[in-house]
Every structure is written in C-alpha cells, then in structure tokens.
Amino acid sequence: MELALVKCFMLCLVIILLRGKGHNGCNKVERMALLEFKSSLYKPQRHGRIPNFLLPSWIDDPQSDCCSWERVTCNHTTSHVIELSLDNAYHDLPFFSSSLVNMSMFQPLKELRILNLSYNGFDAGSESLARLEKLEILDLSHNSLDESIMPSLGGLTSLKKLILSQFGIYPKQGFPNLSNLSGLEYLDIRGNYIQKVSFRLLGRLSSLKYLDLSSNSLEGPLPLHEISNLSKLELLILEDNSLNGTLRVQDLKSFANLQILDLGINELDGSILPGKIPRWIGNLTWLQILDMRNNSFEGELTCEPFSVAYLDLSHNFLSGSLPSCSNTGNLEQIHLQENNFTGSLPEALLNSSNLLALNVRDNRLSGKIPNMIAELSNLRVLLLGGNNLSGSIPKNCARKKALNIAPFYELKLSLSRKIDEASTGPVPRTFAKLTQIESLDLSHNSLSGEIPSELTDLLFISLLGGLQQLIGKDSRYESSIQYLRQ
C-alpha cells in the first residue's frame, strides 16, 4: 500500500512538471525562438519565396512539442534544447540564395550545447552569440559571414570545438578574439584565404588538441616555437599555404603528443639534416602521419626504424640511395615520388616487415626489376614508373608464399624513361591471380604479345595503362578493361 502511494505521488509530480513547462514539455520561449529562425528562412529570395516545406515538423501549434521536431535535441529531464543540427537547411535548393540570419535569435536557448549552421550560405552581421554561455560545439563552416561576428565568438568561453572552415570571413588580424577560449580543444579555420595569423595568440589555447590552418594564404617563416606550449596538440595541419624558410627540428620536440603533422604544399626549404630524417622523426614517439610533400627539402633517408606509419616526402629534392632497410619500424606507407633518388631498388626495403605501400615513381632509379617482387608477402601498392629500371616482369608476380591470396591492390610498372631500357616480354598470365587489384599500369614499356584473356576475370580492375598496342584486332577487351593513354 505504501509503495502504491509513493508511485502515485511520483506520477502526480511528473504531470505537474510537464504542465509547468507548457506546450507538452517544450519550453515556450525556446519554442518561439526556433519558430523565429524558421521564419527567417522564408524571407523573399532572389528567385522568389522558398516553398513551405523546410523543417516541416516545426509548426506553430500549442500541442506540438519542439523536442520532437527534426534537427532538435532536448535534455530528457529539463526539456531544454541542447542541440540544433541545422546544417544544409536548404537541402541544396537550386533557386536558393544566401539569407541574412540574425544570430541573436538563438540567445533564448541558454542551455544549448551544440549548434551546427554549416553549409547554408548564411549572411550574418554583428549580432552576438556570446550569451550562449554553455555552448561547447559551434560549426559555422561554408557560410558567408562577415568579420563583425568575430568579437562574439571570443565570448563563448565554454567552447571546446569551433569549426570555421570556408565560412566567408577573411580577417586581416587572424582571429585575435579566439585567444580567450582557454578550453578550446578543436579549431578548424581552413580555406579562408587568411594571409596572417598570430601563432603567438594561438599558443594561448593551452587545451588545443586539433589545429587546422590548411588551404589559406599564410606567408613567411613557420613559427612553430610560438605554439610550442601546446603540449596537448595531437593534430597540426598547415598544408597548402605559402609558408617558407627552414624547418627547425628543435621546434617539434615540444609536441610530445602529436599524432598527425601535415606541412605539405608549402615553400619550406633547406636540408632536413642535422640528424637525417628518421632520427628527428623518432623523437615524436606518438606521431603516426607525417606529410611534407611539395616543398623544397633536401637530404637523405637513413636506415633507422621510423616511428610513423605514414610518411610522404614526395615532390621534394631528396637524393642519394633508397635505404636498404629490412626493419622500417611502424612504417606502413612510404611516398617518395618525384625526388632525385638514384641507385637500385633495395630488396630489403620492399620486403620490410610492416610495409604495405611504396611509391618511388619519377626518380632516377636504375638497375633490374627485383625478381623477389613475385614473393612479397605484405606489400599491397608498388609504384615504380618513371625510372630507368629494366628487365622482364617476373612471371610469378602474383604468387605468394602462403594463403594463396593475391597481394597487390595497385601495381605500376611503367618502368623506364628510355624505351630501349623498358621492360620487355609478354604480360604474365599470373597477373590474373591478382584478384584484389584495383589499378594496374604497365605503360611506357616494350611489352609484346596479346593481353592474357585471364585478365578479363579481374572484376575490381579500373585501370590498365599503355597496353592498347597489344589489343590488336581482338575487341573482347574493350568492354572489360578500361585503359589509360599516357
């Protein structure tokens, strides 16, 4: 009996709370704010008024609970709105033109934790967002905002994740207001044509773990020492800028937790010495991905274990011989294409224990194609084109020592810059055993004979380059093999 009275009391309490909220649990003030936002989407556009089918569940009906509306998430206990997922609200309407959004309409949502307004092309003025004191995630990417919104962003002191990629602002001062966000862990401001940013101010974001400044117009020396106190940083992406000068190895030592470093497509130069490449990489014990492609680095590779799993040093001026390493540490992918490497292709490197992909095309390598590529147990991608390698393609190239599983996903053997040094002989029929291959390039060779009919059974193949001279009058391959003229 006593238990029944307790249950009855609890039920009555819940009913009272729900009635106190009004509108079936949805906070009235927050509900009106959401309806105001929806109405702002229906202002006359360049191609006429937008039809009333956006956010159809958002209706001005006292019996409609805004917590059940699409793109809205509420706290189950308080019924306050805590998340708005309003990305791509216009659903790529062909007649859409950007709408002016008054950011102050979100101020009544005082419990809001997540706000996503990305991919809308919104225009916005100086209306404040700073009153959203509990906001933790804000995504304004792919809009057409103006610089006047920046001061209010600096007032969102609870922010942990801020995404401003391609959001339309090209601030001359480089986001000075963001230095107040001491709890910020994730900052993405890529693709905004920024020419200058204060790394010193970014260095104040002591909680930062993710920083992406890629695809801007940053110029001048790379001042990594100004953010050296970001000891929690795990990902740093600075690719596709105009940063120049010499990379100072000592500036990287403070990033003890760094897992991804991308400095590709810049104007960095100088020798990667002293210590040669693997030695200073080894100091970054947590680093998994290192991308320094498309710069002007010089130097040589040594044969020490790499701590990284992915290494891209392509499109530089590295020289010397490829390291003859049977132990490359954790390294799984090496991209060294378009450098100045010379000498032969080391068998030990090809057969290193963890290596899955090796791209050394367009260097100055010479000598014979190693016969042992027919026995590789781990390598999945091998790109050798644009060198001066010669000899016949091993007939057993698809065989394995065990498991009878064809190894390669991609194999490029367009070997020679000189036709008299190119690979000769027929295309091995054993290539038909490459059952998982997706790309096969044999262009720029002196191969002869017919394409083996067995290759038509390779269901996943998408590219077979430079073999049109072998097709002859046999048209059976036209529908089953796509080839690329090079």
UniProtKB/TrEMBL annotation:
The keyword Membrane applies. Residues 1-22 form the signal peptide. The keyword Cell wall biogenesis/degradation does not apply. Residues 30-75 form the Leucine-rich repeat-containing N-terminal plant-type domain. It comes from the Eukaryota. Keywords: Leucine-rich repeat, Membrane, Repeat, Signal, Transmembrane, Transmembrane helix. Coiled coil: none annotated. InterPro entries: Leu-rich_rpt (IPR001611), Leu-rich_rpt_typical-subtyp (IPR003591), LRR_dom_sf (IPR032675), LRR_N_plant-typ (IPR013210). Pfam families: LRR_1, LRR_8, LRRNT_2. This is Leucine-rich repeat-containing N-terminal plant-type domain-containing protein. It comes from Hevea brasiliensis. The lineage of its organism: Eukaryota, Viridiplantae, Streptophyta, Embryophyta, Tracheophyta.
